[in-house]
Amino acid sequence: MITITDLRKVYRQKGRDVVALDGVSLSVAKGRIHGIIGHSGAGKSTLVRCLTLLDRPTSGSVAIDGREMADISDRDLLTARRRIGMVFQHANLFDSRTTAANVAYPLELMGTPRAEVKEKVDRLLGIVGLKEFAGAYPAQLSGGQKQRVGIARALAADPDVLLCDEPTSALDPKTTDEILELIKDVRDRLGLTVLIITHEMGVVKQACDSVSLLEAGRIIEHGDLADVVSDQQGRLSHALLPLPNELPHDLPPGTVMELLYSGQHAVEPVISALSRRFNLDVNVLAGSIEDLGGSQFAHLRIQLPEGTDIPAITEYLTSAGVSTTTKEA
Q1: Are 173 and 257 members of one domain?
Q2: Which residues contact 294 (CB under 8 A, 6 or more apart)?
Q3: Is 286 in contact with 241 (CB distance < 8 Å)?
Q4: Which residues of the chain form beta strands (DSSP E)?
Q5: Given 237, 269, 296, which residue is the final one in a domain?
Q6: Domain residues for 295?
Q7: Minimal CA–CA distance to 232: which of 282, 286, 301, 285?
């Protein structure tokens, strides 16, 4: 559905070239929710502007459902942009318009007949759970309700893609959960493809099927959640299943192992089975268990006593579906 190929964006500032995007390539299949995560300055805002053609890429391509967006003429630009519904960090509602009128605004711009506008607005407000607030003004709504209005408005033109730019960063944790659940529900109901631009790993954990790590205008890591988590050397794996960076002070001699396992293995008593099989005292130093991309993952750090047969332990754990790395304490 979304294919970005070798996308570059270079700005000319104070007599020198500033590379904001440097060969970004990724693809997102229809009906998936893909997270693009990165810190401030990574290029997220520039990527949004290139995807929506607010900025023309310097080179490379952006295709939606096989249609190259960068080749669209200025005359057809507005129609092309309607294929992408935008949800912003702040809903940016018109204060003088009611909830219903805010959702109706893009339909009015398209010249949609009045009866059709009312029917569609009613349906969209039902989807986002705000039918009873149709006559309310933005000042009468909570932050989460405003964001729901923004989502309904983004859906008004029947887009193929929902592009959410930091949709929850201004919300409290409970409201964040509710908005992410709504985005997933909208995806399921309408068959949309969703891109979520964020700096919050919690958003990726809760809502996304796949993820890309953007840094200095480049995609550093990319893949389905299950795949990136399984790469113990990857930065996304450590961010999605974090463990403390430092080992406990005064740790006795021995071997420290990190274990990563998923699916059915994640709910099995791997540590107790290991302890019984090898007659070992296993010290669990830290652990993290998460549901990611529809699968459960466990990431543990353990210490084994000095003199333990590490190759035999590693072979046993590998046969049990556990990925391992080791270091001396």
Answers
A1: no
A2: 209, 226
A3: no
A4: 2-13, 16-28, 33-37, 59-64, 67-68, 84-87, 161-165, 193-198, 210-215, 218-224, 254-262, 283-292, 295-305, 323-328
A5: 237
A6: 244-328
A7: 301
Burial of 150 (0-12, 13-18, 19+ CB in 10 A): buried
Q: What is the CATH number of the domain that holds 35?
A: 3.40.50.300
Q: Which helix (H) or strand (E) holds 305?
A: strand 295-305
Q: Please count the helices (runs of H) and the strands (runs of E) in the chain.
A: 11, 14
Total domain count, the chain: 2
Same-domain pairing of 72 and 116 = yes
Judge if 233 and 285 occupy the same domain: no
pLDDT score of 293: 74
Both tokens of residue 72? 């669209």
> Whole-prediction pTM value?
0.88
One-letter amino acid for residue 84 of the chain: I
Q: Give the residue from 218, 237, 256 where a domain finishes.
A: 237
pLDDT of residue 265: 66
Residues constituting the chain = 329
What pLDDT is recorded for position 327? 76
- β-pair partners for 64: 2, 67
Q: Where are the alpha helices (DSSP H) in 208-284?
A: 225-230, 235-240, 270-278
pLDDT along the chain (329 residues), means of 10: 93 90 94 94 92 89 84 77 89 96 95 94 97 97 96 95 93 95 96 94 93 95 90 88 86 91 76 92 91 84 93 93 82
Do 224 and 248 reside in the same domain of the chain?
no
